[in-house]
Predict the 3D structure of the following.
Amino acid sequence: MRPPTGRPDWLGLFLPRINRRQPRESRNPPNEQDLERLEELREQGSRLKLPHPVRGHLVFDGETSARKAADLLGKEGFSCTVRSAPDGSWVLTAIVHVVPTPGALTKLREQFEAVTAAYGGTYRGWDAPIVY
């Protein structure tokens, strides 16, 4: 059994690895917009070492694709709402509580972009309230 790093998992030979989780942070470089928003939260006095309810905004052309995306994200631990917009599109808001680090926000962006690519939507960014 080889972990994602490609090295053998010697401990896994003796102790089985059950419920191995995906890493919570991405190793890819963060997006500039994510870093700017993170800096805004820091300047506003938010305690960035505490979990924040991060809301991701995804837009789809049809209700069916938005609901399928919401189901998929719901299975990954997101709390999702789907609403219709005045222009006829459907807006999916996915909320998850994470400590907002550049790696965690990059991981969220990658998840949201993968879902929108699979279901024909667009990712419109994220926001989070200030946590004191």
About this structure: The domain at 50-132 is CATH 3.30.70.970 (Alpha-Beta Plaits). The longest strand covers residues 52-60. Residues 55 and 127 are 5 Å apart (CA to CA).
